[in-house]
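Quick one, probably user error.
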């Protein structure tokens, strides 16, 4: 078991074929602690040659069948061991993420314990993959085999470094693929530790590899590589679109791209529990300081309860405990980087020019710490066309627009280029059903505080619009990492 201090004390290198490899890239990238701006470590800047080497080794491992060709029950045992190892080091993973990108260790959504459970879901699914036999006449036989795709390039963002890496590694390994993982240059250490643990659990060297460095060099080389069969990407819409271009410019590899969001919270005045709604809305914008793709960043509220709901939200926003993300008492950490801080502050400063009215927040916090803190912020009277209603800010900024009718609520909810998640608050089942059908996103409907936990790790989502392409999560997400291999016999 390793502490986060021990993980950061190592000199990070790519891990290829089961062992550390010196990067062939020139230079390094500083890794900073966003809670205080101090340098934590540095990673190699990476190179195209690193990617070539990792893909070559991953391909060899795949062709030899040391993972793709073994009984699924054997793969499952190894992956269950890995789930246990992740669970055992959950505290370390949470600390790594806290000091590297500012997710408070107190955060329970998408934390390392949840990542271990998510991994276990896929470990258990390993031997549940079945193909199909198609209807034929009596003298022929036609089957669809479900086979691994081959070499998968996985490119992940910084916002939940452990969880996002597990979301790729779990299904890709369960399906029998070989992997080259490329984490964000801002948060590579938890991914490095995951790869070390995978090797310890018994995933053969070469089946899992990691390369480090800049996205436009290392990530691009991976997504453009002619010997990579699939690229699975989580990150911004702009880079997700590049993934599709890279695939088109190289070998037409399969692209799974989970990208940005501008998710609505739609609140009707029809008898819902307003306190429960306020709790949920605050949680879904303040978790990880709003740096969550599924954050409910647009509050669309029926005009009659707008003022009352804003009072409740302002009270909740005022109760955050901002501070060092590694301190267990902290509920609200810093933004990941200075550029991210500047981006968020620019949106805040420009919002009034488009007619928005500041309700609370709007300023930096704890500047003397050297950390990238921004106060939880609410704007009301936000025009649907305003930048803060249309663009993904990726910070703790809630934009509020009032509506009068159900049709208006649907029009507003669908009024951005994104379609990731939508949260509807209504006590009227008919309204809930109509909203669920009409909103082009993954939709959840509530009327009050619930104890229901939904489908958990079996949950699947497939984005609409500029939020991405392809299903992730659950058994349907596992299918993204499998190829339908059609075989027919005639006799
Ligand atoms: P990003 O797109 O800047 O980077 C994501 C990854 O792509 C990183 O590893 C980066 O190095 C790499 N990359 C950057 N440029 C590249 C290029 N030209 N070619 C190849 N790779 C490149 O995103 P980010 O800032 O790290 O993460 C935040 C974004 O991730 C937000 O938009 C958020 O909504 C999105 N996100 C989406 C989901 C989802 O499930 N839909 C989940 C988490 C985060």
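Nope, works fine. Designed sequence:
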């Amino acid at each position: 078991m390793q502490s986060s201090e021990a993980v950061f004390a190592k000199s990070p290198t790519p891990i290829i074929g089961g062992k550390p490899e010196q990067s062939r890239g020139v230079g390094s990238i500083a890794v900073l602690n966003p809670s205080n701006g101090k340098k934590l470590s540095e990673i190699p800047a990476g190179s195209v040659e690193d990617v070539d080497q990792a893909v070559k080794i991953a391909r060899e491992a795949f062709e030899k069948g040391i993972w793709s060709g073994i009984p699924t029950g054997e793969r499952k045992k190894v992956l269950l061991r890995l789930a246990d190892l992740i669970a055992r080091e959950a505290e370390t993973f949470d600390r790594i993420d806290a000091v590297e990108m500012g997710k408070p260790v107190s955060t329970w959504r998408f934390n390392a314990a949840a990542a271990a459970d998510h991994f276990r879901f896929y470990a258990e699914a390993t031997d549940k993959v079945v193909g199909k036999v198609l209807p034929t006449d009596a003298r022929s036989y036609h089957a669809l085999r479900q086979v691994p795709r081959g070499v998968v390039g996985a490119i992940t963002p910084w916002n939940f470094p452990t969880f996002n890496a597990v979301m790729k590694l779990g299904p890709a390994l369960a399906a029998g693929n070989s992997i080259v993982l490329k984490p964000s240059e801002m948060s590579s250490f938890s991914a490095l530790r995951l790869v070390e643990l995978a090797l310890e659990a018994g995933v053969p060297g070469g089946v899992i590899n990691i390369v480090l460095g800049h996205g436009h060099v290392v990530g691009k080389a991976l997504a453009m590589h002619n010997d990579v069969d699939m690229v699975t990407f989580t990150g911004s819409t702009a880079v997700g679109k590049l993934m599709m271009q890279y695939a088109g410019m190289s070998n037409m590899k399969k692209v799974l791209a989970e990208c940005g969001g501008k998710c609505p919270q739609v609140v009707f005045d029809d008898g819902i529990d307003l306190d429960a709604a306020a709790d949920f809305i605050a949680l879904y914008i303040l978790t990880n300081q709003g740096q969550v793709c599924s954050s409910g960043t647009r509050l669309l509220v029926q005009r009659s309860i707008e003022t009352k709901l804003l009072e409740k939200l302002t009270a909740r926003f005022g109760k955050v405990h901002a501070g060092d993300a590694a301190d267990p008492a902290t509920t609200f950490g810093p933004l990941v980087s200075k550029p991210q801080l500047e981006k968020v502050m620019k949106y805040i400063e420009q919002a009034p020019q488009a007619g928005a009215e500041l309700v609370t927040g709007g300023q930096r916090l704890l500047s003397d710490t050297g950390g990238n803190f921004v106060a939880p912020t609410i704007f009301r009277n936000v025009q649907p066309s305003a930048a803060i209603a249309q663009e993904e800010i990726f910070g703790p900024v809630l934009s509020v627009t009032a509506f009068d009718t159900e049709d208006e609520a649907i029009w507003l909810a669908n009024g951005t280029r994104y379609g990731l998640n939508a949260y509807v608050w209504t006590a009227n089942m008919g309204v809930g059903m109509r909203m669920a059908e009409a909103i082009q996103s993954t939709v959840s409907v509530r009327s009050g505080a619930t104890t229901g936990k939904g489908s958990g790790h079996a949950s699947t989502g497939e984005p609409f619009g500029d939020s991405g392409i392809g299903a992730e999560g659950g058994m349907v997400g596992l299918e993204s990492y499998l190829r339908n291999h059609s075989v027919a016999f005639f006799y």
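The chain has a mean pLDDT of 97.
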